[in-house]
Amino acid sequence: MAHAGHDVDYIHAEKGLKSWLLTLDHKRIGILYFVTVMFFFLCGGIAALLLRGELFSYNAQANVGEILKNGDIYNQVMTYHGAIMVFMVIIPGIPAILGNFFLPLMIGAKDVAFPKLNLLSWYCLMAGAALAILTMFTGRVDTGWTFYTPYSIQTGTAVSMMVVAAFIMGMSSILTGLNFIVTVHKLRAPGMTMHRMPLFVWALYSTAIIQVLATPVLAITLLLLMMERVLGVGIFDPKLGGDPVLFQHFFWFYSHPAVYIMILPAMGIISELITTYSKKVIFGYTAIAYSSLGIAAVSFFVWGHHMYVSGQSELAGTVFSFLTMLVGVPTAIKMFNWVATMYKGSIEFRSPMLYAMGFLFLFAIGGVTGIMLATLAVDVHFHDTYFVVAHFHYVMVGGTLMAIMGGFFHWFPKMFGKMYNEAGARWSFVFIFVGFNVTFFPQFILGGMGMPRRYFDYIAAYQPLNRISTVGSWLILTGFLIGLYVIIQGLRKGAKAPPNPWGSTTLEWQTASPPIVHNFDHEPVVTAGPYEYK
Amino acid sequence: MSTSRVIDGVNVQSHYRDVDHQFSSAKQGIWLFMVTEILMFGGLFVAYALYHMMYPEMFAEGARFLDWRLGFVNTLVLIFSSLTMALGIYYCQLNQTKKAAIALAVTVVCAGIFMVIKYFEYTHKFHMGIFPGAMLNMEQLNNYLAAAGEPLVKSPNLGLYFGFYFCMSGLHGLHVMIGMGLITWLFIKTLRGHFKPNYYTPVEGVGIFWHIVDLIWIFLFPLLYLVG
Fold first, then answer.
1. The domain that contains B64 carries what CATH number?
2. Mean pLDDT of the region A444-466
3. Would residue B128 count as lying in a domain?
4. What is the per-residue pLDDT for A4?
5. In Å, what is the CA distance from A391 to each residue of A301, A318, A388, A453, B7?
6. Staple partner for B63: which of A133, B117, B151, B228, CB 3.0–4.6 Å?
7. Is residue B76 over pLDDT 60?
8. According to the model, what pLDDT value does residue A7 have?
9. H/E stretch holding B140
10. What is the distance between the alpha carbons of residues A234 and A255, in angstroms, rounded to a whole number?
11. Coil, strand, or helix at residue B10?
12. Smallest Cα distance from B32 to chain A, Å
């Protein structure tokens, strides 16, 4: 390993499975994450399709549309869909795949600060994922991904094991975040000041701060839940004077900032895409950079909006309501700056740009409905209905997943040194975008009509919209299958990619595609900002 | 991609400029990890504060069953071990390997004393019927108190206090044991002459960890033992 050539690209530097599983190269670790997270996404996606299949018809037992045997199995599939998508796909998704690969490249470094920890964090995710999958054979879990007490203490299902799994995956997240913070502080190339960093790096940095500060609280929450199940310590158990709502406070103190772990890096990708494909310097660089930090800061003070109806005081509810709306400010700053960047730019409608624009559209809907839900009086009606389901899918799928896809196609030539089929990538966008709206927009209406979330059955009046929604899920499936085909086809037969196919200005495009083992021939010296388009 | 080269007799990974660059990065990483430790214990402290506000009498009564003298001895032992840990780093910086090894050995012994005292505290509680939460055996405890001529338990949910006691001191004890393992590892490496004035990163890192573990105990001691 010590003598790997200087001109060899990272893919061909070494051969064999072992050279991948024991690699300390941030680029190879990024690829490891890519392969595994794709697999988890497939698992979570199959669960989602099963849920939508079950919901195709009301009173499924009496009708033809019975997919899942009973409500218990529906609850389990729903739990796995949520837990897999949150802990194993969206949270590690952007930072661990694209962040690992591109953070060092974008700041002109040779690697992340702690390469061994980086590999360890992948193994943590693997260990956690293995345990999570193992629970499917040791009693399964039916609590939903939130593990709310008191049910999660009482149920006989494999909650303890799942909780340990989530704990270990949390370790993985902490290690990644810690690594990124030190990398940004210590390994920037000469001349790469904080204010010359690409906005994706700013977003990863803000994300890393949340990962390091919020995840330990999840760790102690899950530990206490474990202790509650094993020893009955009583902290969340009302029988012993404990308070189950405290669990919700603890859980959301992590899990609300975690929502921003999911969306901030996505916003970073969008900043890169919009400026690249508009061929124009980003509008309001500083505002976008600091709004990431702003979102990270505010994210720690909004957790109570998950508990408006959990018996928290009206005063607390009001304060949380205002604080939650505050998130809209830095978010809107980003949205307006992106639109202003596109204004009078020479926009190229390549597939990554289509995904970025899809993001703007879907995230706007997700964000505005978020403000609706933050409004105390409105939320009392919408709480635990499909309106909430639609809202967070617009943010997480419409936002984060769109950004992952866009970012992935944007950086595909750099990661693998091959070009992909542009027409195919556009078709995948069309199906995912249309399918997404067909799936989730009806759920806003269903929520408005009062359909509660998490139930395996519903009344006849909800059937037409549910059928539309289920058909939409098949369109999304089609879109992702096309995307997968485009990726495989590109990997196998794609034309060789030039170092900088899109005419980008950031550092990762100044080295070979795929990058050489040490990233750059010579340590780059930075003399200007990241987006100096002529 | 990180390969390494030797600068001034120290292995420096290729993505670092020099020995100092590598050292200061490692130290920043350790401090960030300590932040996560503090936040993790922070959750317990918040829960403690909340329930203490709700049930002040129960917490006062619970503290009655803890022997503050044992806790105080343990506090002194840990503070002293912090001193010897710091001395270990100091002697590494001065290249006085033997003294560094002695300082580290004393630190491990102190940690051992702490754990032994904790062991006796725990077993004594189990003997009285005191277990965390629902497992607390009120009948056994009251029989024990009656036999000793002491007032019986007033708080019906005393188990909750001991839920906190065992969770907090248990999680802390786990950290002490991890620290013992790490310092033993440092001790062996020191004996083998692994550290020198320009390379003692692991000693510094474990040292920071050890001070944080001590610091957490310094908060736990009054909260658990002296609250009555």
1. 1.20.120.80
2. 94
3. yes
4. 46
5. 20, 21, 5, 12, 55
6. B228
7. yes
8. 73
9. helix B138-148
10. 23
11. strand
12. 6
B13 forms beta bridges with B4
Per the structure, the count of domains in chain B is 1
Tens-digit pLDDT profile for residues B135-177 = 899 999 999 999 999 999 998 889 999 999 999 999 999 999 9
The topology (CATH level 3) of A23-510 is: Cytochrome C Oxidase; Chain A (1.20.210)
Q: Quote the tokens at residue A104.
A: 């060092």
Q: Which of B32, B164, B166 is the closest to A212 by Cβ?
A: B32
Q: What is the pLDDT of residues A301-329, one digit of tens each?
A: 999 999 999 888 899 999 999 999 999 99
pLDDT on residue B3: 80
Residues 407-426 of A with CB under 8 A from B: none
- Residue position matching structure tokens 């919009």: A274
Prior bond of A514 cis (ω within 30°)? yes
The Cα A182–Cα B92 span in angstroms is 25
Joined tokens for residue A388: 């909430």
Residue entry with tokens 């249309």:
A434
Q: CA–CA distance from A417 to each of A21, A349, A413 (Å)?
A: 21, 22, 5
Confidence of residue A67 (pLDDT cuts 50, 70, 90): confident
User: For the residues B3-29, what does the mean pLDDT come to?
Assistant: 92
Is residue B193 one of the residues assigned to a domain? Answer: yes
Q: Residue A99 is encoded by which pair of tokens?
A: 């962040």
Chain B neighbors of A215, CB-CB under 8 A: 36
Distance between CA A482 and CA A475 in Å, rounded? Answer: 11
Q: Is residue B16 part of a domain?
A: no
Query: What's the rounded Cα separation, in Å, for the pair B104 and A64?
Result: 72
Instruction: Look up the domain containing B83 and give its range.
Output: 27-225
Report the pLDDT value the prediction gives residue A330, as an integer from 0 to 100. 95
Residue at B117 is within a domain:
yes
* Interchain CB distance below 8 Å, B29 and A179: yes
pTM summary value: 0.95
ipTM > 0.85 for the complex: yes
Query: Chain B closest CA to A334's CA: distance in Å?
Result: 28
Q: In angstroms, what separates the C-alpha of B219 from chain A's closest C-alpha?
A: 18
